[in-house]
Design brief:
Helices cover 18% and strands 36% of the residues. The radius of gyration is 11 Å and the shape is globular.
Amino acid sequence: MKIKARDGKVYEVAPAPPGGSHEVRLDGKVVGSFVLLPDETQVTVKSKPATDALLVDIADRFVAEGGAPMGIS
């Protein structure tokens, strides 16, 4: 799913099973990932321009656009 983040760039977020890691790519390069848990979002920064805050923003927008697995909202 393509997600436009607060930095104005469009990131590609890969699907994942519930509790799995969603890879976040910019221009085909993995910049980070996130895991949607019931009470929190765990993020992993792999390269710039990703930051913890940016990955949380992308995860929030991903959920808002219907990308959350069943049972997480």
